[in-house]
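the four lines:
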Amino acid sequence: MENRCENCIIRQFNSLRALNKDELKKVSDSKISKKIKRGEALFIEGQKLDGVFCVREGVSKLSKLSSNGKEQIVKLTNRGEIMGQRSVIAEDFTNLSATAINDMEVCFIPKEIITNTLNSNPYFSLEVLRHMAHDLKEADDVIVNMSQKTVKQRLAEAFVYLKKNYGDDEEGFLSLTLSRDDYANIVGAATESLIRMISEFKKKGLIKTEGKKIGIVEEETLQELADGF
Amino acid sequence: MENRCENCIIRQFNSLRALNKDELKKVSDSKISKKIKRGEALFIEGQKLDGVFCVREGVSKLSKLSSNGKEQIVKLTNRGEIMGQRSVIAEDFTNLSATAINDMEVCFIPKEIITNTLNSNPYFSLEVLRHMAHDLKEADDVIVNMSQKTVKQRLAEAFVYLKKNYGDDEEGFLSLTLSRDDYANIVGAATESLIRMISEFKKKGLIKTEGKKIGIVEEETLQELADGF
DNA sequence: TGTAATAACTGATATATATCATATATTAAA
DNA sequence: TTTAATATATGATATATATCAGTTATTACA
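prediction for all of em together
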């Protein structure tokens, strides 16, 4: 029995660490491991979820499509995160779609287990609450950035964020490779505008590129740019 | 004993309704009623809160100031809402400032009561969780609107929202009177740009104005405009 | 392995919105 | 009430970013 939750380090990073042995056993017994290929959806906007996803490996984007076909990425998920809790807790349709950015390994946990545990274990509720409080703060920050920063500043910020959160390889390229389209949808700009800015950053020596791959060269300057200098 | 929480209808609208008699008594014994004048702050960005606020009367704006002095309003609070919970739960500094838009009456509840109850009463945690889930969804929606809608669309949406949430008076003017500056900070635009749009809406007969006051004339058209037609 | 499909890139131009300047109305204060 | 301070309004102009059109490079696939 290799892949039991009891032995899974991932849970240390999320609210599942508040579960006791019994609860954890129940989760482990009912969970379903899934592999999601790059580009595939975990769930889509407006769907009703009958459980949550615990991310063991890979990165996904949470996004929303507008009527004119433009996508806005609201958040990138990290390893160890639980996805879909908002919808399960509010007993609501999902307000966002989740799409794998690279190959993912997730565990699906049926909602009954989650809601039962929420009702009985206040520590678990509190943990979930803390995580959601964190998400809410980040969302507020994004709102402010969207209205007060230029696309250039947001792009600089995104680069610094990606390096900080997902690291880079031996050659100094970001480990998480996004398409130009994804970048545009994160900073909220037209793809062409964004490509132009990447070219500009490259010309100024702030970043380097090799095909899709992007490497952060002048992290501090990018940070300053993001902060408005 | 008039103003005891036990007799306060307001709590039916927020997570405090999950409290049992004993818990409610404790809250009531330790709460402090406060009157906040229009323009005064309940708390400011970066502060540490030693409690939460339960809004009995009045409206406040949650906002963040940027380095260049521009303010972004993230949310308007409603009667019955609890403010400051995110910060208390995450044991974190506030990420937003709260300022009274009109005269307010709030009850301050010390954080110990809140955290103790969160630890002992899973129903309360769950209620708080549901409210935060709702806030998070709204925040996500704002992010998407900020990036995908024009200022004009966002303004139209704001008018419809204000009418729906705060109603209007006998003469058809919005009950909640905001300054042009506040409007600009809600939709994330320069004040002059916003004023111009108000003039335009007025010219087209979508709204009417009388000094600061704004009345919604063509609600449906505004809604359509907000949705992109 | 070659060809189609898709993504990345660049240029020209249009447009929404910001900024600066200034006038008028409204509110606060002396 | 009169003056000062602040908010609202409008015009002219600048600027960031979107849009449209087209080219080159990559990737997928038959």
